[in-house]
Amino acid sequence: MTGSLPLTLRVAGRRVVVVGGGHVATRRTLSLVDAGAAVVVVSPEVSDSLASSIGRGDVEWVPRTYAPGDLAGAWLVQTATDSPVDDQVAADAEAAQIWCLKGGDPENATAWAPAVARVDDVMVAVSGGGDAGRASALRDGVAAALQAGELPMRHRTHHPDGFVALVGGGPGDPGLLTTRGRRLLAEADVVVVDRLAPHALLAELDADVEVIDVGKKPDHHPIPQHEINALLVDRAQQGKIVVRLKGGDPYVFGRGGEELIACRDAGIPVEVVPGVTSAISVAAAAGIPVTHRGVSRGFTVVTGHEEITALPHDGSHTLVMLMGVKRLAETCDELIASGHPAHTPAAIIERGYTPTQRVTVATLETLADTAEAAGVEPPAITIVGDVVTLSPAWPPGA
Q: Which of 145, 204, 282, 348 keeps 20 to 30 A from 125, CA to CA?
């Protein structure tokens, strides 16, 4: 590759000749068509895939062997016959000062096609020094890192249009953030973060990324929701990529719907990235499946603040309560009064998926006193139902 200069060619609308009709010619032709080139295939026979493109009118076909003059008006030529014809095409291209991609013979080509990966608006082209397999492996590795948000994706120039992504951060473990969420975080100019979001990921951001903590605690909302909505709109209207990093899932008691409406009303493009909700994942972290064959056929997710007396009252229906530590005693009394058996197994899980996770189990009748004695504090979720007995924390034989 000595003496080469990496370039990106604008082939849209320009004549490109492909000599050959086999696998290499097919692959290159389809790539050129995707790039908008006016492709002419010269070959007595073509593959089924090429025949389909020809039938649709995407490709012009000259159904014969190559002849001098076939390169007239071409900007680029790909030869892939695996025969002496390739040498003739390359020589004609050289004489006409047309760049030539020579299949299987990079040493005698005047142009090389790299292995290409596209992630959003980023295109990565990798040359393997003439080794196509090596280039493909490197390409795949770089693409995977970009897709996972492990490489910087931020634009370094001003955006004419802003953008907001409502990203569910999962229950707090950075490894449970989706790859799409992580990639958007790597592109962000502004991150508006909740108290229960995976804060460890903030250390990976560039120093000039604006991080705004709008975290709420029970009965303490330093930034009310309408101001958070206005904040998202304001930063996006400045042409910035804004990530609203939330704990759990944006639409499971996360008020993501309100933020979506506020942005849309202001004409701001919005993307919602689902997250792993703590209602299910934290229960799983404690060894409690919210449904289990022969034990529980369904579950309901509620907050501890709302009326729950109308819910099913037997242990085969799992009840998951979020944000209910402060009212735990009242909630347990209400459930029993409305028909839940006092001996129904129950658990409260603090700081799920963190190194300090703790599981406290009891019955519905004794859970509040047990939690108070243990000094249980939010963030925590409460599980009520027979599935609690499947947890390793449940005493054997109890």
A: 204
Is residue 148 within 8 A of residue 179, CB to CB? The reply is: yes
CA 23 – CA 393 distance, rounded (Å): 59
- Alpha-carbon span 20 to 18, nearest angstrom: 6
194 belongs to the catalytic site: yes
Q: Tell me the two tokens of residue 23.
A: 């696998």
Residue 248: CB atoms within 10 A of its CB come to 27
Under DSSP, is residue 204 helix (H, G, I), strand (E, B) or coil? helix
275-296: average pLDDT: 93
Q: What are phi and psi of 19, to 5 degrees?
A: -105, 110
Q: 96 φ, ψ to 5°?
A: -90, 5
Residue pair 192/185 in contact by the 8 Å Cβ criterion = no
* Token pair belonging to 84: 């002496």
Active-site hit among 105, 216, 326, 333: 216
Give domain limits for the chain.
15-112, 114-147, 163-276, 280-390
What topology is assigned to 163-276 in CATH?
A: Cobalt-precorrin-4 Transmethylase; domain 1 (3.40.1010)
Residue reference for tokens 């330093």: 222
What predicted TM-score, i.e. pTM, was given to this entire model?
Answer: 0.66
In angstroms, rounded to a whole number, what is the distance separating the alpha carbons of residues 390 and 292?
9
Say which range, 20-24, 300-304, 362-366, has the weakest mean pLDDT.
300-304
Q: Which CATH number does 280-390 carry?
A: 3.30.950.10
* From 189, 194, 240, 246, active-site residue: 194
Residue given tokens 């013979």 in the structure block: 105
pLDDT tens, residue by residue, 324-358: 888 899 999 999 998 999 999 999 999 988 889 99
The CATH code that applies to domain 15-112 is 3.40.50.720
238: pLDDT strictly greater than 70: yes
Give the span between the Cα atoms of 26 and 186, in whole angstroms: 36
Active site residue 216: yes
Stretch (H or E) spanning 88:
helix 85-95
> From residue 201, how far is each of 156, 195, 248 by CA, in Å?
21, 13, 15
